[in-house]
Amino acid sequence: MSHRQLLNRSAGPRSLLSLLRPSLTRFYSSSSSVTSKDSAEEVAAEELPVTFVEDDGLEAEREARIQAARNKSRLLPQHRNMLHNTLPYEQSQSWIHETVKYKRMMVGRYGLDGSKVDPRICFPTKQEALERSEYEKVAFPHTLQEMMAVNRKAKQDKIAKIRTREEEIAKKMEKLDQWTADLNARIAKKEADARAAKERKDRLVEEVRRHFGFKIDPRDERFQEIPQEGEGGQAGGEGGQDDGEAEEEDGQPGEGRGEGG
After folding, report:
1. Would you kindly state where each structural domain of the chain is located, as residue ranges?
2. Is the pLDDT of residue 140 over 90?
3. pTM (global) more than 0.70
4. What's the rounded Cα separation, in Å, for the pair 98 and 111?
């Protein structure tokens, strides 16, 4: 016994009668068996509970409610569609959605089936092809062979420039030892000059201290007078030496003359 018959039996005596009616009619008349069977099924369908009745509209609505309850992301429908890699809008929401650029973008992103766009829109029109050709003539006036020749020459110039630079560096590296020695000599000379200046200053400070009996700031005017006096004395001493040398030279001819006299 089928599930439907069990449900009809649980309904009561009327359902039992509806179960017996097809067998009785089939026993008395074979010609009216089909009609009796159809009427029994109609009565059974009417007596079934609502949950066992198949309704496409109710099933679709129930599935929609389930899907809405499963959506916990709180995203807008278009954003959720983009997340699942589907077309954001089923219908155009703005004039931008009707532009050729937007439709081509949808075809490239979601394919022919997912974008629901005529693929012929992806091909350029005659006007677009003409404008593109004119643009390429202006933007790229040279042929492929000419561009290859220019590129080859640019590479050769770059290699030659690098080679020249390497040769200059090699020549300078050969002179590196001499330059290092010259630099060290200049540094040593500067250090020697600085050391001599410091020693001269210390000597002058010591002379001033011996002259006055106490230390004087080098910025003091009295400190500036002592070096001038010292330089004058040195100049006088050098002058005296020059006079003595001159007298000796004069004495030699005098002796010669005296001997001659």
Report:
1. 57-139, 144-227
2. no
3. no
4. 17
